[in-house]
Amino acid sequence: MIMSKRKLNVFLPLLFAVVLALGMYLGHKMPGANTGAQTLLFTRPSRAPLQEVMDLLKIKYVDTLQVAELQEEAIQGLLGHLDPHSIYIPPSSLQTVNEDLEGHFSGIGVEFNIIGDTVNVVSVVPGGPSETAGVQTGDKIIKVNDSLVAGNSITGDKIRKMLRGPKNSKVTVSMLRQKKLLPIQIVRGDIPLYSVDASYMITPEIGYIKISKFAGTTYQEFMDAMRKLTRGGMTKLVIDLRQNPGGYLDAATRIADELLDENKLIVYTQGKSYPRSDYRCEKPGLFEKGGLTILTDEGSASASEILAGAVQEWDRGTIIGRRTFGKGLVQEQFDLSNGGALRLTVARYYLNSGRSIQKSYADGRDAYDDDIMNRYNHGEFVSQDSIHQKDTIAYKTAAGRVVYGGGGITPDIFIPFDTARFTNVLTAMYSRSTFSNFAYQYYNSHKSEFTQYKDATAFTNQYQLPNEVYNDFKTFAIKDSIRNVAAINAHDEKEIKTRLKALLARQLWGYAGFYEALNKDDEMMRKAVDVLQKK
């Protein structure tokens, strides 16, 4: 043992010398040795070039930079090379985006429009904070706390930010009512954002439900509507998904479970780093056997297409309308440290037959965004023969019917778009909100005329827009800088009267009244009723 220590002591100086010489040699050969840069024996992990550039800009660039804006632009640039539905949500927009899908927000509970720099209360949420405080339809908002909003070039976004706030916080809103200024203190509360806009009986046996989006509260709203209609004698159903942009997958699959029986596959999702996940029917549904039609158009997307596609795959009902948008991608939302979020595509939807809903985005985002307009231009909106199927593979439903994927859901019964609805004069009226502004003003000065109608159904069946009201509207439109009012044709006149009647119903019964009146002479609705009555 003593001899071993002595030998070690003899060789230690030699060992240190060898290690020192080797270190000097390696140091000379390592990158940066001859450039004056500092070099470490153990190098730190390299940073990504993007982060290096951002750091250099912050430290070395000659001028002061808005680094947050640069980072947002860099993120947008990265996402621009991905699919069209992977998006960055900046911190300023995240709350609004989340509220829309969660189905509620904190505010005072009024709906408003802006006419001539004046904020007008169009409706008051029943049971909400404003109704409790005494706000009435027709009131004009002049001030919010100490901030003047009337005649101050106010915008919808600005007034929304002023009226919304934390739950139980207080805001004083000065209202002009019959030439009197009334300061009203309102305690903010939770305001529901409904996604089932309307539900009513079309005939003694046929019910109707309009779903505008698939949010966190949609399934419960749908079930409440179904129970109400079932008590009213409903045995057949129309579900209206027109212009429904989608939303939560869970809401769509839970509603599908109410319509499909047994253990049927509704949809499955799968991605490169996202294992297959099946969504099947799990329980007895509330409406598995009655006659069913679903209305779709080019604005029906994502979760809407899943619901319509699942019904079509299993031959459960009839899809009526026009080809849907074609969005079959799954997004997952990731919160970022700056308060924003990244909504990233992680998988695709596939229906029971294996077909994908998603249309191609191989030609870039601009081409993708122009797809709907291109469909219109090549005649698809008016002729079923103009529909270009994207997939070369034909899929089959449970009953053996041929269906196609790769570009939305093609309806079983095609209903053309009424191009005559958008003449130049009507388009100008829509874009300037001439219809809604006139209906609001007329209703508030003629409320007593509408007390004879007990509900939206009675109004829809009995009310006819008087010619004097129609003439008043034309005079209003001329004052609103609408050109060629004198050249309105018979088709335009019918469209104007239908729209004004629906907007007056909205003033009385909200969106439920609006859709019931609007659907009275709707061609797609007539076809749905015809199909269900034949069954």
TrEMBL record:
UniProt entry tagged with the keyword Nucleotide-binding: no
Q: Which residues form the PDZ domain?
A: 94-164
- InterPro entries xrefs: ClpP/crotonase-like_dom_sf (IPR029045), PDZ (IPR001478), PDZ_6 (IPR041489), PDZ_sf (IPR036034), Peptidase_S41A (IPR004447), Tail-specific_protease (IPR005151)
Q: Name one Pfam family in it.
A: Peptidase_S41
Assigned keywords, A-Z = Hydrolase, Protease, Serine protease
CDD domains xrefs: cpPDZ_CPP-like, Peptidase_S41_CPP
* Protein family membership: Belongs to the peptidase S41A family.
Q: Which PANTHER family match?
A: CARBOXY-TERMINAL PROCESSING PROTEASE CTPA, TAIL-SPECIFIC PROTEASE
Protein's recorded name: S41 family peptidase
**Organism per entry:** Chitinophaga rhizophila
